[in-house]
Amino acid sequence: MIQLQGILPAVRNLRDFEKILSSNHEHVIFLETRLSQLASIVKYAKRYNKKVWLHVDLIQGLKTDEYGIEFLIRHLEVDGMISTKVNVISLAKKHHVTAVQRLFLLDSHALDHNLKMTGNVKPDYVEVLPGIIPRMIKEVSEKTGLPVIAGGLIRTSKDVEMALQAGASAVTTSHIDLWDC
């Protein structure tokens, strides 16, 4: 399993992608991409020795069935996948690709449901959203026994610091000014 620590830059557009290529960050997470762009941006990132992570649910034009996931793994050779969908996490694990189960903590019912789902599928990491609730980061980490990534609504260096102090192994953010915290 790939070890994720510190800031994980999440790229929403090509301008941000260019900035991450020249950075010292080892990992890049692609959000909101199109299937037609995927092969070229993954190839380009790999040329810069970046480990490529895809938020699979946000790839426009991709069907997240076995064949779509197989395409990402065999043809694009992605390093990791992020998804809210159990089938995506299961397929990534089946093919030995690091899997991050994204959990939205809306209320107690959602928390309980997500913890049960995580226990069944056993992802490599759990991403907690919003990532600005330190107490919930700690609780999810304790209840799942998995490393937690904090994401969503991370807007300041203080948010990053609090998430890491609460036990998050990493923080995802698309805010460029936080990539070098």
From TrEMBL:
Named from the GO MF annotations, one term is: transcription antitermination factor activity, RNA binding
Does the keyword section mention Transcription regulation? yes
Keywords linked to the UniProt accession: Glycerol metabolism, RNA-binding, Transcription, Transcription regulation
The family database entries (SUPFAM superfamilies) matched by this protein are listed as: GlpP-like (SSF110391)
Q: What biological process terms from GO does the record include?
A: glycerol metabolic process; positive regulation of DNA-templated transcription
Extract the InterPro entries matched here. Aldolase_TIM (IPR013785), GlpP (IPR006699)
Q: Which Pfam families match?
A: G3P_antiterm
What biological function has been recorded for the protein in this entry?
Answer: Regulates expression of the glpD operon. In the presence of glycerol 3-phosphate (G3P) causes antitermination of transcription of glpD at the inverted repeat of the leader region to enhance its transcription. Binds and stabilizes glpD leader mRNA.
Query: What is this protein identified as?
Result: Glycerol uptake operon antiterminator regulatory protein
What is the species listed in this Swiss-Prot or TrEMBL entry?
Melghiribacillus thermohalophilus
